[in-house]
């Protein structure tokens, strides 16, 4: 470990080169004179932050980086060093409690990480040494070791596949633990490897470790006796990643290339950037205000102390003469010391325990999301997942929702619908449709041979059967269909036969099967298929030109039995049309556009016949590009572009991706809650537009504003001029004209009025022009105009988007005026960038892998669960934590204000009003548990009402409960009650002989009465605010008051031997022996709570309460076990009339 850290800090040789050299099995190649063993990272996985030795210093350093903790540490040190009026225990004990609780929580979490690391590091694996297998712990594997892995085992490190028990030299793996994809992926052995690996000599050159799971560049030099070394390229298809699982293969052998913290899995587990909620920012702002109040109090008291002492006899009374040391003290130093003493005396106005309470509320509150049974999906047997509990309240503040389309709004469950061959439609369903001016009988291909011609039909279906990476699951048999009409295996049977990483490919292979062409699988390097005549055809697979998001197409090069070399290509129309003959495009384009308008996903099929010379050039170029260690991706892309030029278009396919369950209802609810929904997708505009209509994001009355390449190319103007012209026109219609006509302040959906609604459509190419505009004066306004147009539209559709553009859109809105809270939701790896960029990231547990889930803050099984997550959980979390924050500042102001006022009556001598035990226990014990219970269990409006009336969400929008208005109200309330506490008791003490025997009460009794009124008032205030009572609320509220009484009796009823002075000895008991004390306590509590009672009785319900009463004026839900058992008004305000009008 020390060596690894030293190399990381000082920069070893490995970090200075772009590649690494690995000797397979640690055997040097024949003819090599010297062999210097290279040092690589060991195979230990370390996800923990601490060790036994560094836990204490490292954890303390991290905790004291927080301003509040550091502030209280300084106060504690001042109390220790300077002669202050309060004991260091009063600030040291709460600080110790906070630090200890946090350390225990972080230590426990790190212990779990250590435990998980040990399970991985101590796992036994088989390593080939000296011709035999040796069992070792996983952490002992070194780079260059040949490792044996059996079926259903996980790979202990990143391996290059050398040997497989399958005849075709392949193996199947699942990468569910890496990206969540449960589909089987095929990996290939390196050609020309020896059957006996103990006599296999090879050297691997590959790139240094990098986190991209889907990229790997390397080459292997294989040395055989008396021959020149053979060079083979290595790519992602040869790399088996740590954490992946071997499937449908009995055994494989691989050589370790990346180990430990250099594996791709470890590199992908780096921490995400910390997201801060709006509530945390409000807390910091309020803290600054209260810190200013604290400093002002200390300055006022320090100044008035020296003003008071300037009067004769006040500075040095006869009964309290100064010592010589005090007389010799420098006056300004004494003033500074007094200032610090007052700071210490009043420091409890800063609520340090609030941070612990907030953390506890967030951590425990997140379990309610995980436990919500409505989020459980029986299909995948999973519920919601909380990856970040720090953003619970942010779910209640969302203003913009950015959603992916495929797999999020739609199911990503593909079904083959129809195809178009040479301009003719082939619909598998038995119906008659009139298309393009002539009638077509929909049905199997055998009924339509006269339309496109048998040769074109069979060529198209062969392309469907060959142009893919689908595999047939081992152990399953595919039987030919008795009829061409599609009577054959059931969908369930088909589903278990074909294995693919994309559901699109399976749907297309199934579509070909329905028309009589069935893919039978791979046999070595040959693809087998059965044609309509039940004859088996074989094609040698020469090359696969893989799909990627930039090319948006994939191709295969195959060789027929007759020796003809064919290239089959499938891809998006925008990617295929420019590479085929222009006259062929027009016959297919209308079908593609019509299918896209109907919401289907379309792919175009093309082919090309390669001459022997063309193939030889292509093969050589591909081999050279694949052997390159530098810029391999770019060189391969160039070769792909060259060989895929000049193709012939055969036809197109239409695959249906159905809407998610309740997708339209969810989008409608989000609109009703005042949120604006943007759809960011890589699909075609027509397909995405159709989905938006189906989801009710666009209505028939919605006026669509289109800013795409097509609209820019209309007319003869240059693109930038046309862009500027369109932006100005759309801005006038959507922003300027609308502001003249409307009386509302926000753009929301109005179902009953004739209010015009706009929808905005933009594509990726145009967006690049907007975001990357030239810096001249006219173009500098593009971004501002574009953003204003979008913000004044009810919905925005961005199509043909790259993943980076999705993040750019989110960032642009997030950083716009007002800093609106953004939420991104998606299910695929291409959505990760926008999920990380948004304030809140939601991952959907879909079929495109789990990368989105792993990088999200929250994960839900389906889109429909977003409605309850925001409208219910988000709403309640925000209200709870907002009340918690305001309540903490309020009760601490009530606590310290009497202490401040007391200084005016004790000569500013820094005499404390409360006993040290009360100072310490106030925030830790006496008032802590009721607010914790409130912040976890409160339901001011029941769940059913929140779901039914989405507009309730608007009542808390834009941080409504933590603005300066509510903060000022709570502050004034705290000031009023603090004044009542102090001066009410002060009036009682005009005659201090309050006991029956004439005994005079002293200053500690005065402070105890004030403290008693304080504890009861702030606790009953919370009881009045509680609207959803459970046994937990009753227990903690009344239990806290009972504990205070018990503690006061216990603390003052015993002589404690460890205390030099005991100020409260029998003070509490003597106080309660006075009827006057009882009377003043009850009276002051009632007077303090009177404003809340009066306001609650006479004020009309506001915000959510008012809307709820208007929505459900006469509902009664007392029998509903899930509903709060109280009306919208506080429990203590209820009367008999409320019982029949309870709103739940």
Automatic annotation (TrEMBL):
All residue ranges annotated as the P-type ATPase C-terminal domain in the record: 853-1100
Keywords: ATP-binding, Cell membrane, Coiled coil, Endoplasmic reticulum, Endosome, Lipid transport, Magnesium, Membrane, Metal-binding, Nucleotide-binding, Phosphoprotein, Translocase, Transmembrane, Transmembrane helix, Transport
Membrane topology of the entry: Multi-pass membrane protein
Any GO BP: phospholipid translocation
InterPro entries: ATPase_P-typ_cyto_dom_N (IPR023299), ATPase_P-typ_P_site (IPR018303), ATPase_P-typ_TM_dom_sf (IPR023298), ATPase_P-typ_transduc_dom_A_sf (IPR008250), ATPase_P-type_domA (IPR059000), HAD-like_sf (IPR036412), HAD_sf (IPR023214), P-type_ATPase_IV (IPR006539)
Catalytic activity field: ATP + H2O + phospholipidSide 1 = ADP + phosphate + phospholipidSide 2; a 1,2-diacyl-sn-glycero-3-phosphoethanolamine(out) + ATP + H2O = a 1,2-diacyl-sn-glycero-3-phosphoethanolamine(in) + ADP + phosphate + H(+); a 1,2-diacyl-sn-glycero-3-phospho-L-serine(out) + ATP + H2O = a 1,2-diacyl-sn-glycero-3-phospho-L-serine(in) + ADP + phosphate + H(+)
Domain P-type ATPase N-terminal, first and last residues per copy: 39-91
Top EC class, one word: translocase
Family indicated by similarity: Belongs to the cation transport ATPase (P-type) (TC 3.A.3) family. Type IV subfamily.
Protein name: Phospholipid-transporting ATPase
Taxonomic source organism: Acipenser oxyrinchus oxyrinchus
Lineage, top ranks: Eukaryota, Metazoa, Chordata, Craniata, Vertebrata
């Amino acid at each position: 470990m020390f060596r690894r850290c030293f190399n990381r800090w000082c920069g070893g040789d490995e970090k200075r080169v772009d590649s690494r050299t690995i000797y397979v099995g640690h055997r040097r190649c024949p003819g090599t004179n010297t062999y210097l063993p290279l040092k690589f990272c060991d195979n230990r996985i370390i996800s923990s932050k601490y060790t036994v030795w560094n836990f204490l210093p490292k954890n303390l350093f991290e905790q004291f980086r927080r301003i509040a903790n550091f502030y209280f540490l300084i106060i504690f040190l001042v109390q220790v060093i300077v002669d202050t009026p309060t004991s260091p225990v009063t600030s040291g004990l709460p600080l110790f409690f906070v630090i200890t609780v946090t350390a225990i929580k972080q230590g426990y979490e790190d212990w779990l990480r250590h435990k998980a690391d040990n399970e991985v590091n101590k796992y036994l694996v088989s390593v080939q040494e000296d011709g035999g297998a040796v069992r070792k712990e996983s952490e002992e594997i070194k780079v260059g070791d040949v490792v044996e892995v059996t079926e259903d085992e996980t790979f202990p490190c990143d391996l290059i596949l050398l040997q497989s028990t399958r005849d075709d030299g392949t193996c199947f793996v699942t990468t569910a633990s890496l990206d969540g994809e449960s589909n089987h992926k095929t990996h290939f052995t390196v050609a020309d490897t020896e059957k006996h690996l103990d006599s296999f000599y090879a050297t691997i050159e590959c790139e240094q470790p990098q986190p991209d799971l889907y990229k790997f560049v390397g080459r292997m030099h294989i040395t055989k006796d008396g021959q020149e070394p053979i060079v083979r390229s290595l790519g992602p298809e040869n790399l088996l990643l740590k954490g992946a699982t071997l499937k449908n293969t009995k055994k494989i052998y691989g050589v370790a290339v990346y180990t430990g913290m250099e594996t791709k899995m470890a590199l992908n587990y780096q921490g995400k950037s910390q997201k801060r909620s709006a509530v945390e920012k409000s807390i910091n702002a309020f803290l600054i205000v209260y810190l200013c109040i604290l400093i002002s109090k200390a300055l006022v008291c320090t100044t008035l102390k020296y003003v008071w002492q300037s009067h004769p006899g006040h500075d040095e009374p006869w009964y309290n003469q100064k010592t010589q040391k005090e007389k010799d003290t420098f006056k300004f130093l004494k003033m500074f010391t007094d200032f610090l003493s007052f700071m210490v005396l009043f420091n409890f106005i800063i609520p340090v325990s609030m941070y612990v309470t907030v953390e506890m509320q967030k951590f425990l509150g997140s379990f309610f999301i995980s436990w919500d049974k409505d989020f459980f999906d029986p299909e995948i047997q999973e519920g919601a997942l909380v990856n970040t509990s720090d953003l619970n309240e942010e779910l209640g503040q969302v203003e913009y929702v950015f959603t992916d389309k495929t797999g999020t709004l739609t199911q990503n469950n593909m079904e083959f619908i129809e195809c178009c061959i040479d301009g003719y439609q082939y619909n598998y369903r038995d119906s008659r449709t009139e298309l393009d001016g002539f009638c077509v009988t929909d049905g199997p291909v055998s009924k339509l041979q006269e339309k496109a011609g048998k040769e074109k039909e069979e060529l198209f279906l062969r392309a469907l059967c060959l142009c893919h990476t689908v595999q047939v699951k081992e152990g399953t048999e595919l039987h030919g269909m008795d009829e061409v009409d599609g009577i054959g295996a059931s969908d369930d049977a088909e589903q278990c036969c074909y294995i693919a990483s994309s559901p699109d490919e399976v749907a297309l292979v199934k579509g070909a099967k329905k028309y009589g062409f069935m893919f039978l699988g791979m046999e070595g390097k040959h693809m087998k298929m059965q044609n309509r005549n039940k004859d088996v055809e074989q094609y040698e697979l020469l090359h696969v030109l893989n799909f990627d998001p930039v090319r948006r197409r994939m191709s295969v090069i195959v060789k027929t039995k007759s020796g003809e070399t064919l290239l089959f290509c499938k891809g998006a129309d925008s990617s295929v049309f420019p590479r085929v003959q222009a006259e062929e495009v027009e016959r297919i384009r209308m079908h593609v556009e019509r299918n896209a308008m109907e919401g289907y996903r379309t792919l175009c099929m093309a082919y090309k016949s390669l001459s022997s010379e063309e193939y030889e050039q292509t093969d050589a170029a591909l081999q050279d590009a694949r052997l390159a260690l530098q810029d391999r991706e770019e060189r391969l892309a160039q070769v792909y572009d060259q060989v895929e030029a000049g193709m012939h278009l055969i036809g197109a396919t239409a695959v249906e991706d159905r809407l998610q369950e309740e997708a339209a209802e969810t989008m409608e609810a989000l609109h009703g809650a005042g949120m604006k929904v943007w759809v960011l997708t890589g699909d075609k505009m027509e397909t995405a537009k159709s989905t938006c209509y189906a989801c009710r994001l666009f209505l028939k009355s919605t006026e669509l504003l289109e800013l795409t390449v097509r609209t820019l190319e209309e007319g003869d103007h240059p693109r930038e001029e046309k862009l500027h012209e369109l932006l100005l026109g759309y801005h006038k219609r959507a922003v300027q004209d609308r502001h003249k006509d409307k009386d509302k302040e926000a753009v929301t959906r109005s179902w009953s009025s004739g209010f015009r609604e706009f929808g905005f459509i933009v594509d990726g190419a145009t967006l690049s022009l907007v975001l990357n505009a030239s810096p001249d004066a006219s173009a500098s306004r593009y971004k501002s105009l574009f953003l204003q147009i979008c913000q004044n539209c009810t919905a925005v559709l961005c199509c043909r988007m790259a993943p980076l553009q999705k993040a750019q859109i989110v960032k642009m809105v997030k950083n716009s005026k007002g800093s609106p809270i953004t939420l991104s939701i998606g299910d695929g790896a291409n959505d990760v960038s926008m999920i990380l960029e948004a304030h809140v990231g939601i991952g959907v547990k879909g079929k495109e892998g789990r990368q989105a889930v792993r990088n999200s803050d929250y994960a839900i099984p389906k889109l429909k669960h977003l409605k309850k997550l925001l409208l219910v959980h988000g709403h309640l979390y925000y209200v709870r934590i907002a009340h918690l924050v305001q309540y903490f500042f309020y009760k601490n102001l009530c606590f310290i204000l009497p202490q401040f006022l007391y200084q005016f009556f004790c000569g500013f001598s820094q005499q404390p009003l409360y006993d040290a035990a009360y100072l310490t226990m106030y925030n830790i014990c006496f008032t802590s548990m009721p607010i914790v219970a409130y912040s976890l269990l409160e339901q001011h409006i029941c769940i059913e009402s929140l779901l039914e009336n989405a507009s309730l969400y608007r009542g808390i929008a834009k941080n409504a409960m933590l603005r300066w208005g509510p903060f000022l109200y709570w502050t004034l309330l705290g000031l009023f009650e603090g004044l009542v506490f102090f001066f009410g008791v002060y009036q009682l003490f005009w005659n201090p002989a309050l006991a029956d025997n004439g005994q005079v009460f002293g200053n500690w009794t005065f402070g105890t009465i004030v403290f008693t009124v304080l504890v009861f008032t702030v606790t009953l205030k919370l009881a009045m605010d509680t609207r959803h009572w459970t046994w937990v609320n009753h227990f903690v509220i009344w239990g806290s008051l009972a504990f205070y009484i018990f503690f006061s009796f216990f603390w003052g009823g015993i002589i404690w031997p460890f205390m030099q002075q005991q100020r409260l000895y029998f003070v509490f008991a003597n106080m309660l022996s006075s009827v006057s004390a009882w009377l003043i306590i009850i009276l002051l509590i009632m007077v303090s709570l009177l404003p809340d009672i009066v306001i609650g009785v006479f004020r009309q319900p506001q915000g959510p309460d008012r809307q709820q009463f208007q929505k459900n004026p006469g509902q009664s839900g007392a029998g509903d076990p899930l509903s709060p058992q109280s009306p919208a008004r506080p429990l203590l305000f209820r009367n008999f009339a409320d019982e029949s009008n309870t709103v739940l």
